[in-house]
Amino acid sequence: MVLKTKSVLISDKQKKILTLLADREFHSGTELAGALGVSRSAICKQLKGLSELGLHHAAVSGKGYRLDRPLELLAHDKISASLSGQNNALISTLEIHDTLDSTNSYLMEHSRTNAPSGFVCFAEHQTAGKGRRGRQWVSPYGSNIYLSILWRFQQGGIASTAGLSLAIGLAVIRALKQHNINDVGLKWPNDIYSQGKKLGGILIEVSGEADGPCAAVIGLGLNLFLPETHAQSITQAWTDLTKISGENPFFRNQLAGTLLDHILSIANGFEAAGIKAYLDEWRRYDCLKGKLATLFIGQQEIEGIVEGIDDNGLLLIKKLDGAIHAFASGEVSFNASIV
User: What is the pTM of this model?
Assistant: First the structure.
């Protein structure tokens, strides 16, 4: 497995400051300046740059500086420690970037240049994170999980990936429950929900042949801590693990590794098992069943009661005339307050 860490957004000096301040204890300007070999005024300048990224700090006379919240930057060894030996062997490359436009876009580019299956990419920050229907995924630095995996399927073509987003959703639920985060569910076809609000999203982009080999880039964005200042542009109800647990989750690497472990397990077995192996488990976490909802397909709007999913993972909606119809794609809007 190839391990790479790439830095673009944050300077080496700022990274060193973050490492020192990550414990959220006070550190004097003199201490920071000495550790970096720069002046105290240079420290102030570097801290200002971090604040512009949403990494805010407090400055107290006689005590020094500290971050407003604990920070755990991603690290290869800590992520790998949460992987089983079998799944660790599935990884061809594991990269951690300070910043990317989008982890999915990055791996789509690598997919086109024949990068091998098992290419894993994390980012601390995304400048153009991708959601469904062209939405931007809000991606503040060092706060959440931004993960993409390139996985190649050898048989069955693009059709063999049908329902993959539902199965990956289950991988996320399994990982969260492993960390005693139980108040979570799934919204068809690719959202993670808690308490009626969006906690995370899955975006799968597939390319390849209709009947031959194809490649899927499996993307996950999961909110651990989403500052209110960054969330102002979000147009739907959202939540994060800090709100769910009532405290700032200080296990980011461990959770990143657990998520990766469960996603790799499902990706590795999906070609043989297909969606049918996961339907019963998925139905246990269905947030939409029994809800009045509107399905948007392009300019078309279909309103009705959600009746769950069929044996192919398609969404079932009972229209106002009583007829039940199955849908393979679309965006669902529903009253989250009654979830």
Answer: 0.88
